[in-house]
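Notes to self after the call with IL:
- keep both proteins in one doc
- input above output, always
- annotate only the second one for now

Protein 1:
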Amino acid sequence: MDGRPRIWQELATYDGTNNWVSDEGVFWRSSNGSTWSTWGNEELYVGQTVQFQFNMHKQNQGTHYADHLKAWVDWDKDGFDDPSDVIMYEEEILYSTNPRNNSSFTDTSYLPPNTANFSYFSDIFTIDELMTGEIWLRARVTCSHSLTSPDAWQNQWDGRAFKDIFKATGDLYQGEVEEWSLKVNSVPEPATILLFGFGLLGLSGLSRKKK
């Protein structure tokens, strides 16, 4: 590790030896491009496709059930409440049963270092006219106890569906939330295409961290 403060879950990129690379943890590529980009100033056009990548880093020490990532895009611009807005959900289980019931467990127990970093890829989405304008992407990472709090610690092993209770809004005592603005334009005129080329997805972003 590089001396940066260790937090439980974050959207960020680390290398294979668990050293911090950047605070960027959300990436995109358009029209089946081969290069993943961070959020910039280009724009997405109707008719293109877009795919998202999410990098979750977690502190590799803890006794909770799992770490969770969920992401939404407000395709229809009415909030993140529609099931179709969910573009990604993943959970990484640390302990299938409560380790605090194990008398040999101590707070200095560590998971293997190679379980600290995870990359997830969304489906590929086609941009249509109904998405023209500004739409928003929101990504959140947290832990199972943060999702079940203030329930008792052991209740996170009760088999509940964490995907359903992990909402786009609401306070969580652990993790991070990031939001990004997606600017979608109609297909440019042919002269514009000749002058500027086909647009790539580009998004000016707003990042909010909760630690």
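Protein 2 (the one to annotate):
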Amino acid sequence: MERSPLRTELARPGSQSSGARIAAPRIALFADGANVQEMLTAYRDGMVQGFTTNPTLMWQAGVTDYVAFAREVAAEIKDLPISFEVFADDFAEMELQARTIASWGDNVYVKVPVTNTRGESSREVVRRLGGAGVKVNVTAMLTLDQVRAMCDVLDPKVPSILSLFAGRIADTGRDPEPVMREAVRLTSRRPLTKVCWASPREVLNVYQAEACGCHIVTCTKALLDKLALRDKDLTEFSRETVEMFFRDAQRAGYTL
């Protein structure tokens, strides 16, 4: 299967992507999580083209030492993008944390939230970081106004990612596809800025992201595992579902 330019750019020499085996989409798949072993398995299998995490995922995974976790991952994964997020709410401290995180590797992107908890834009922090050569991944974005504001301050000479939480847009009853298509258009003159469809809720979102022209889609392990279902025969899938119900009823020992 022909790969998109981004997938070609991010593929490791000599790696055999499982995407070819499961007819994965041409969009770049970034594993989203904070389980070190799952991350390393995905990396060694060549099934993804990058990694993202955040403080919530780390907390859910039981990570107690941020630096130790990040350095362990960065020591093993040196040739694919990895995004680690700042956790400060004060912009000055946010910038200091970002510079520290960026020092962990040339492949490290620093996730900077689009605002602080007071709703104040982080655009000036993003501007200064880009000017210092820091690769940023602006996260928690949901509106096109936010995209426009960040496009104005991103350094065009430094790789960057804009992570729009399409899944959260959909959670409000809105269709995220028009937003994502316009975000791709707004960044079209910035070849080093990639649009990421973040927080997908189902496998269909991966293919929607691809159709919208997004460069990246984040996937939890559960979503990555389900990519093998693409074009599966629905009649057989139905039979397997019935078999699952029957098997589990037998295991439970249900009687009437």
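Annotation: The chain has one domain: 5-231. The domain at 5-231 is CATH 3.20.20.70 (TIM Barrel).
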